[in-house]
Specification:
The complex is a heterodimer of chains A (412) and B (79). Chain A has 412 residues and is α/β, with parallel strands linked by helices. In chain A, 29% of the residues lie in helices and 25% in strands. Chain A folds into 3 domains: 189 residues, FAD/NAD(P)-binding domain; 135 residues, FAD/NAD(P)-binding domain; 72 residues, no CATH class. In chain B, 9% of the residues lie in helices and 33% in strands. The chains are: A alpha/beta (412), B mainly beta (79). At the A-B interface, β8 and α3 of A face α1 and β4 of B.
């Protein structure tokens, strides 16, 4: 077992966490723990150990420069006391004592069940990108990119740069909502440039709005998907389906610490402080709003936690602008009701415990379903099916109990 | 290059490759069998869903998407 003591502990090495750590390090002893082999989080995930974005590389290098203690491959799994978290590393159990904590645990994709979604070679959208960055070859593969959100275009563009053949992009939101969102981009010119570049890169790829995957088919792995658009169904042969429906904040650390949660997000004040006195939160767990928002929230949290209230205050306006962009994004890509009807009675919803949709319709809330069917009781602890059943049935996700990630018995 | 073995077969991958990527690159999509025996492979790619779990150097239930391949590694799928 190892013991670490630090002034400020940052959990999560993505945009928000890196930004927080660097901002706090001018005045305090800072430690960053992250569950990945390399810093960067998801949006800035390194590709074969290298960072594509200069901004990401700059921030990662700054955090790795020596002043800040960085613990990679560390899975935080519980709180031992008000000021101590427990993490599992390759060396075993680690106890990390802190004065102040900054939660920057990011977000994950929401997946919705449809017939065939458990077939091998059906991935998330960000999920496929992460895998390709880890070395999965996609050259020459026929890929359908589906679901919703700006990630679809970004990932389709990325896959094309890796010589995949993107055969269709299916965006569930309507053309009119998307148009409204595009118009709103005129207020943030840098986003408009990004959007235009993506469009140019994707010339020749069939892109449909009001369109979604209704089923996936294959013997041992994916061979075909069925797309639905305006009441009509079409079938496309493909090797890979990348399908995801927006992002879900990772609040599994904030909940057992006692932080107030509203609508699935950690409640924070202007200084990014949660309802618990020495705990701050930045980035997607406070409400999904993208990388710009994560960076500025991280900076505010870092400065405020280190006692530089004036520095933090100077960033409020910038933060509020970034958050408004996030809110516009969430409105533009809100999920349509038709997606609630994709699963058949025998479609698996809880992938860990193989609980089918029909079985879940017998229950009124997640807790009852969990007790009777084991839905949400597998190793992912409801992180995948909880987000699905929240949308399908309006169920509040189940309570999170430590350990918040599976750990070896000897490390508990 | 990194030399490892997947289901006893020798595989070479570039530095920085994850175990999940090494498995997929070898044409294996079936990483584990679910409780009812259906084949499963990676979904989230970021260590959340646990669908890519495999046995690495005798240690079961490792999320292969979050582990980088290393020389001499022994990986077993559907174990």
């Amino acid at each position: 077992m190892t013991r670490v003591a630090t002034d400020i502990l940052v959990v999560g090495g993505g945009a928000a966490g890196l930004s927080a750590a660097l901002a706090a390090s001018a005045r305090a002893k800072v430690t960053v723990v992250d569950d990945n082999p390399l810093l960067g989080g998801q949006i800035w995930r390194a590709e074969m150990g290298k960072f594509n974005s200069p901004a990401a590389k700059g921030l990662v290098d700054a955090v790795n420069s020596g002043e800040i203690r960085v613990i990679n491959n560390a899975q935080v799994f519980a709180a031992a006391a008000r000021n101590t978290l427990l993490a599992e590393t390759a060396e075993g159990r680690s106890e990390i004592e802190f004065e102040k904590l900054i939660i920057a645990t990011g977000a994950r994709e929401r997946f919705l069940p449809f017939p065939g979604w458990t077939l091998p070679n059906v991935f998330g959208v960000g999920g496929l990108q992460a895998l390709v960055k880890g070395g999965v070859p996609v050259a020459g593969k026929r890929v359908v990119v589906a679901g919703t959100g700006p990630l679809l275009l970004a990932v389709a563009d990325y896959l094309r740069s890796k010589r995949a053949s993107v055969v269709a992009i299916a965006e569930q939101t309507s053309a009119s909502r998307l148009g409204g969102f595009a118009a709103s981009l005129f207020r943030s010119p840098s986003k408009l440039v990004q959007a235009a570049a993506l469009r140019a890169g994707l010339r020749g790829v069939p892109y449909s709005t009001d369109c979604w995957v209704s089923s996936a088919h294959g013997e041992k792995a994916l061979e075909q998907v069925e797309l639905k658009r305006k009441g009509r169904t079409s079938t496309i042969d493909c090797d890979i389906l990348a399908c995801g429906f927006n992002l879900v904040p990772n609040v599994e650390l904030a909940v057992p610490l006692g932080c107030e949660i509203t609508d699935g997000c950690v409640v924070v004040d202007k200084f990014q402080k949660t309802s618990i006195a020495n705990v701050f939160c930045a980035g997607e767990p406070t409400g999904v709003a993208g990388v710009d928002s994560s960076l500025v929230e991280g900076r505010i949290a870092g400065l405020a936690a280190a006692g530089d209230q004036d520095g933090a205050r100077s960033l409020f306006a910038k933060r509020d602008r970034a958050r408004r962009f996030g809110e516009a994004l969430n409105r533009a890509f809100a999920l349509r009701d038709e997606l609630k009807a994709l699963a058949d009675d025998d479609t698996i919803v809880c992938r860990c415990e193989d609980v089918a949709y029909g079985r879940l319709t017998e229950f009124e809330n997640f807790r009852d379903a969990k007790l009777q069917t084991r839905c949400g009781m597998g190793p992912c602890q409801g992180r995948i099916c909880g987000a699905a059943t929240e949308f399908l049935f309006g169920w509040k996700p189940g309570s999170v109990r430590p350990p918040i990630f599976p750990v070896k018995m000897e490390n508990l | 290059m990194i030399d490892l073995r997947i289901n006893k077969l020798a595989v070479s991958v570039e530095d920085g490759t994850t175990v999940a990527a090494a498995i997929l690159a070898g044409g294996i999509g079936h990483f584990r069998s679910s409780t009812i025996g259906s084949p499963r492979g990676p979904l989230c790619g970021i260590g959340v869903c646990f669908e890519c779990r495999v046995t690495i150097d005798g240690v079961k239930l490792q999320r292969s998407c979050n582990v980088q391949a290393r020389d001499g590694m022994e990986v077993e799928t559907d174990d």
